[in-house]
Design goal:
This protein has 107 residues and is α+β, with helices and mostly antiparallel strands. The strands form two sheets. It has a three-stranded antiparallel sheet with strand order 4-3-5. Strands 1-2 form a two-stranded antiparallel sheet. About 7% of the residues have low confidence.
Length: 107
């Protein structure tokens, strides 16, 4: 019985070594169609811009969907803007910053 444990130990060691090898030398997560993206590569910049734009679009959708002041102010990316001329509305921070101060007062 003791000889079985001893002969199984090198096999276990080889399996763990193989698992380590596969984990360390597997392909990077940024591999796209067999080509690796480099930090300065135009494709990686486009992917980053696209991902950032998607996040901004989601934030904008959430702010425009808020119909009450409380809903708007619950999202830290949104600002509630009041106007005597137009309806009070929820805007993203960047949109609220660009609004004319003569027409809107934003919190």
């Amino acid at each position: 019985m003791a000889t079985t444990r001893i002969s199984g130990c090198p096999l276990l060691f080889l399996l763990l070594l193989l698992l380590l090898f596969v984990t360390v030398f597997r392909s990077p997560p940024f591999a796209v169609a067999g080509n690796l993206l480099k930090a300065g590569d135009a494709t990686s910049r486009n992917l980053l811009i696209t991902a950032t734009q998607r996040k901004l679009d989601r934030a904008a959708q959430n702010c425009t969907e808020a119909s009450t002041k409380l809903q708007c102010l619950m999202n830290s990316k949104c600002r509630w803007c009041q106007s005597e001329v137009l309806d009070d509305t929820c805007f993203t921070k960047s949109e609220a910053f660009r609004l004319p101060s003569q027409v809107f007062s934003c919190e």
